[in-house]
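Data deposition worksheet. Section B asks for the primary sequence of the deposited chain exactly as it was used as input, without tags or linkers unless they were present during the calculation. Section C holds the resulting structure in token form. Section D is free text for depositor observations; keep each observation to a single sentence. Incomplete worksheets are returned to the depositor.
Section A, Depositor: J.P.
Section B:
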Amino acid sequence: MGITCVSEFPCAPGKIDELIAIFHKSLPLARKLNGCEKIYFSISDNNPNVAVTFEIWKSKKDQEKYITELTENGTLSQIQLCLNGFPKFNFFNNLDNF
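Section C:
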């Protein structure tokens, strides 16, 4: 059973373009990682300072490896510098038997 991770990033005023640039660079690499099925990056239509990612992984372990890589290569720190608070992560088990 796969998982979906929905992450919300509350961006600091004036930092959304910087955040977009970070994800523009990092997501193509993430999509090539073992276990990554899809990753989408979106900006809220109601609040242009809120970004979300929708990540679909074969397992939570695969997603955790991705986060470890972001931490080790400094990308997570770069993201945090763009934020006005902490990101929120929600995990959902994908039900394949429908």
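Section D:
Strands lie at 3-10, 36-43, 50-57, 88-93.
The longest strand covers residues 3-10.
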